[in-house]
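Neuroligin-4, Y-linked
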Amino acid sequence: MDVICEVLLVAAFVILITHDSCLSEVYVKEVGQRIVEIKQGQVRGRVIGYPKDPTFKQVEQFAGVRYASLRGGRTRFMPPASVVRKWQHVHDASFVSEVCPQSRKPPSLRFPEGHREQIRRRMFHTNYSQEDCLTLNLVAPIRDTLKMDKGQQ
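Predicted structure tokens:
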């Protein structure tokens, strides 16, 4: 089991290392103009960009979109329930929600020092974790119109 965890951890950090420059150079340009209809109701995201790399186009981010509800009590360790309530207003999806609880163990000495340093730099995100973390952060290209039939949503 430890080998599987380490392989997954290495894969996750390879992705983070590859996109390290993007993570530090993202800026929020404006509130998104598009309102998207999903099963739970309507959501509005935000437009983000990458100022130091003009080859990256601006995208629209929908952050912290709930996809399921956490069960409590006796059903705590059971699969999550689908979201029951539909939003009555346009949901503001411009803020990333807190992360799920994570292991706070120091990085393995088998990782190169550069990888260990990146793990240590990102550990502050796990200071603000919560069990109710069943949310998604979605990124979509900005388009003038969105043409999808019901089967593609």
